Amino acid sequence: MLKTMNQRIGLILVILAGSYLLLSYQLPSYPYTSVDADVIPNGLGWLLILLAILLYFSRTKETEAEKQKRAIPRKELLVLAAVFAMIFLYIFLFEMIGFIIMTGLFIYFCSWFLGYDKWKTNLIVSILFPLTLYGIFVYALGIVLPRGILPF
Amino acid sequence: MEAFQGLLSGFQVALSWEGIMFVLIGVVVGTLIGMMPGLGPISAIAIMIPITYGMDPAPALVMMAGVYYGAVFGGSTSSILLNAPGVAGTVATSFDGYPMAQKGQAGKALAIAAVASFIGGTVSVVLLMLLAPALSSVAISFGPPAYFALMLMGLTAISSLSDGSTLKALISAVAGFMVVTIGIDPQTGTQRFTFGSVNLLDGFDFLIIALGLFAVAEVCMLVLNRRNNSLSDSQKLGSLKLSKSDLKEMSGPVSRQSFVGFILGVLPGAGATISSFISYIFEKKIAKKPEEFGKGSIKGIAAPESSNNAATSGAFVPLLSLGIPGSGTTAVMLGAFLVLGVQPGPMLMVERPEIFWGIIASMYLGNVFLLILNLPLIPYLAKILAIPRPMLISLVIMFSLVGVYSISFNVFDLYMLLIFGAIGFFMRIFSFPAPPFILAFILGGMMEQAFRQSMTISNGNLSIFVTSPLPLTLIIISLLSFLVPVLLGLRKKKVEV
After folding, report:
1. The model scores a pTM over 0.95
2. How far apart are CA B23 and CA B4, in angstroms?
3. A35 closest CB neighbour out of B177, B418, B451
4. pLDDT in tens, B455-485
5. Do residue B393 and residue A106 have CB atoms under 8 angstroms apart?
6. Which UniProt keywords apply (chain B) (predicted)?
7. Where do the domains of chain B lie?
8. Over the stretch B312-336, which tens digit does the pLDDT of each residue have?
């Protein structure tokens, strides 16, 4: 039943569209308008279900190029997951520790992790980039970034 | 006469020291980001938007326009030197640009690209200057039904023209429209899909979507391709000089494809990528020696380069005069306008002539700057391609995070950026095009509003969309843009059987 990629994606989309519709039908009604808040969402939900069904039954085969795009070695996916984990950690500690320190750490470790081995250059960039960006945003543009544990 | 006066006032903006400075910043940044393999104009514009907060709208938008056409201009450099196009619109340039560079004539290929881009861009600005005001004055009489139908046509056009499956493109567009329904409904005040969260009341800022689906997702692809070739120091560019016969050979394609590119840029859905391919094929078909194409032909570089830059300026016609973007990139440009409190559309020329004409006038200047940047200075600029991929990846991630944080000062939005980054990555992996998503996200709110206004006018009668000629025509075109590819597909199958 779920042989092709299109069938799997189609099924996921039907589930998503179904949950969206479920929420949409529960929207409270508002009497003084000709088009209520749920009209467009209902239409979109049904449209997506229709398109997902068409995708499920579509017989277009994946081209070689498309298959190639999908074929990612497991190791590379783990690398990508690690980068996402690093970004997650960055966001989590961003306001506590502050922009400058976190950005410096992120650039150094992320570049190193992805295979950049010139540590001196890496260190210089990791120090200069956050300071420059902080200077531009806070002093030139007036956009305050979290100071965190640093005094300035 | 009015247009002439307008243009003069536009040049006052563009030629003020502030104008000159911001055009220069825009085109330099655009060229540099555009050169980076994998990072396109959408990322370039989205990364630069936070810089414009608090700026005066006229110079800010002059700069953003510069980022856009600068990115398309700069994209050719990595196509030619690395065979890794920085921008989808310059893929066709690599067909002949890279082979020419392999022959040791990289400098010549870059020079052809720069001159062709300059001419395409400049011809297109002249046409933009003539067409945009005319379209503005017609569009001023459009009612909500016509606007709704126009936006519908934009969405169907981008879906049927995007590469890969039309069905997937449509799904992408519907998903983008769904995401924009999250938040408080502006008309009734009903909370939609907010799950009671304060963070979702205002919906998602478009910058989260643009940076997530494009910059972060593009970075994910860069992570996977991080070991690919970057520029080695030893690579020689060779002479940048073009001989008289070179110029003569490119004159034909450039003069034809500048117009082709402009027209395709104005039409919804097409834009730089499609126009560059069409122009390439066009020139190959009519060439006396088509076998030279793909092996480093001068015409093969000149045609797509003049065309994609012409399409870029052409795309400003519907954006400035109708307020309706026809592509993913111009959708993000529209976002840049709205961030600064400027609503493009037929009233822009009347209410904010300094912005309308300022942008147009600045494009003349921007193209001259780009020619200088991309001809004599290109050996120095190309050095940026030597930036190691790991470093580039970390820096782009940081730019995206800071950009999103500076709009809302809310960490929740940063998590959302990460989620949309993942969605964008999966869309790329499973071949769902992202431009229809962002276009639908930007147009969705406007479409819903236009739909409701139409229904209010007609007392809830749907026939308002088919009783007057303009909306009817547009809706028929929208329907045809699907049915024709489907029918052609069916016929093809029958022939195969």
Report:
1. no
2. 21
3. B451
4. 999 988 899 999 989 999 999 998 888 777 6
5. no
6. Membrane, Transmembrane, Transmembrane helix
7. 2-144+204-436
8. 999 999 999 999 998 889 999 999 9
